[in-house]
Amino acid sequence: MTDLAVRKAKDYKSTVKPIWCPGCGHFSVLNAITKAAASLALAPDDTVLVSGIGCSSRLPAYVDSYGFHGVHGRGLAVAQGLKVARPDLTVIALGGDGDGFSIGGNHFLHACRRNVNITYIAMDNEVYGMTKGQASPTSPSDWTRSKLTPHGTGQRPFKPAAVALSAGAPWIARGYSGNPNGIARLLAEATAFEGFSFLHVLSQCITYCPAQTEWKSIVREHTGPPLDRAEEAAALFLSEDGFTTGLLYRNERPTWPPASPVTAADDGSVFARLESAFEVIA
Ligand code: SF4
Ligand code: MG
Model-level pTM greater than 0.85? Predict the structure, then answer.
């Protein structure tokens, strides 16, 4: 392994070549992850990427770290359990909008309120790409490109930032795949943050949603420091169009599990840590 001090972004790429379509936004997220890893000098042996199922969830295979390409919608459950058992690791959960906001929606809600010290990257392209282009929870209600929804979905799209805020997420940011350096900066901050950091990335699906190339003329940067009052953030997230990027909200609070008294049984083993965590729940 290359000395961490001289390790560059390219050194964090694995030898597995991505099979995403040329022009897929997820390439930018992969580049951002390796840039952030280099800027933080993350040790591959102490870093774990955990995903669910979908095009974006293939990403752990492309990074030189530990990885877990798991079960649909369950990446957050695995990532939180891992962090509770091994708090010394840097744990990053990631996946797409279908994986994270539909089948994994319940895990998303509870990860926001639980506040385990992990980062969650949701790569949102408003479509189920891997299964060939069905509407997802974030598809616009008038999206008619899928044969399954020829008259549009007729449903209001999910607002990830607003939902995350209302469920208690203490750190919320939004990136855009057209700006990988911006994602890398946000990811470095997210990883350094003590708590559950939610990074929503607008990541275009060039194959099933080619109109998303227009996002580059719509996205705008949030100006000023992140909001720290939930009321103000709620007003922003409920009124904006979902294209404001940057660190939008930060309000640190105690992480989970809370500190518990050290007992003779707590010898620092994985099971002792889990046992004390479950005692807190009971
Ligand atoms: Fe990316 Fe869409 Fe291709 Fe999947 S189908 S790899 S999301 S461009
Ligand atoms: Mg998707």
Answer: yes
